[in-house]
Write a structure and sequence with these properties.
The chain is mainly alpha-helical. It has 7 helices and 2 strands. Helix 1 packs antiparallel against helix 2, helix 2 crosses helix 4 and helix 3 crosses helix 4.
């Protein structure tokens, strides 16, 4: 990384903290299965004080212009960045979604569409197939059904959380484990004593 483009209004070198954030976001992206350059471009636009062109991005990150174009298309598909007009410049300029809650929701929605939804469809097909196939061991069929039930529960929870207004969702997250106190408490089952113990006394 060399300089922030003049389009950002700051020709200075990237501050160490900003550079570290961009590099770390790229590392996290690669661990999540996202191209490192895609993640770095997203991080750069997120902290940029002004929209940037593809040429600006390529210059700052030191990557090929063609690589930037491909990465921008992917970020647009994820709805994490958008094109914005800049007066007096006919080139495309891009900025990232700056609302952190909206950003997190879009990333989660994108991962759900690419990972959870296909997994859910595959599990449903597996459970249906196992139910009608006598050669499938009952234990295997049971565990497939349990995994489907869990995945469906996670899918429903995610969909419901997306509908919760941001202030309430933030409050809910801050509650953490304390939310348990608001849940109805089930009756605690007392462990049964083995029949051999009976109720008598030893002699």
């Amino acid at each position: 990384m060399t300089e922030i483009s003049k389009a950002t209004g700051d020709p200075e070198k990237l501050p160490p903290a900003v550079e570290r954030f961009i590099l770390h976001w790229g590392d996290m992206g690669s661990q999540w299965g996202v191209n490192r350059t895609v993640a770095q471009i997203h991080a750069l636009l997120y902290v940029s004080p002004a929209p940037m062109t593809a040429e600006d991005i390529a210059a700052v990150l030191g990557v090929a212009r063609s690589n930037v174009s491909t990465s921008i298309r992917e970020l647009l598909a994820w709805n994490l960045i958008r094109r914005v007009p800049v007066k007096g410049d006919r080139r495309d300029h891009f900025e990232a979604e700056s609302d952190i809650w909206e950003l997190a929701a879009r990333i989660a929605a994108g991962r759900k569409a690419r990972e959870l939804d296909p997994a859910l469809a595959a599990l449903k097909a597996c459970v249906t197939g196992a139910t009608s196939d006598a050669s499938v061991h009952p234990l295997a069929a049971k565990r497939l059904k349990e995994m489907l039930d869990f995945t469906e529960t996670a899918d429903r929870w995610f969909t419901q959380m997306l509908a919760v207004p941001r202030p309430q969702l933030a409050a809910l997250m801050r509650l953490g484990a304390r939310i348990v106190r608001f849940l109805p408490a089930g009756k605690e089952k007392r462990p049964s004593r083995p029949a051999s113990e009976g109720g008598g006394h030893e002699h």
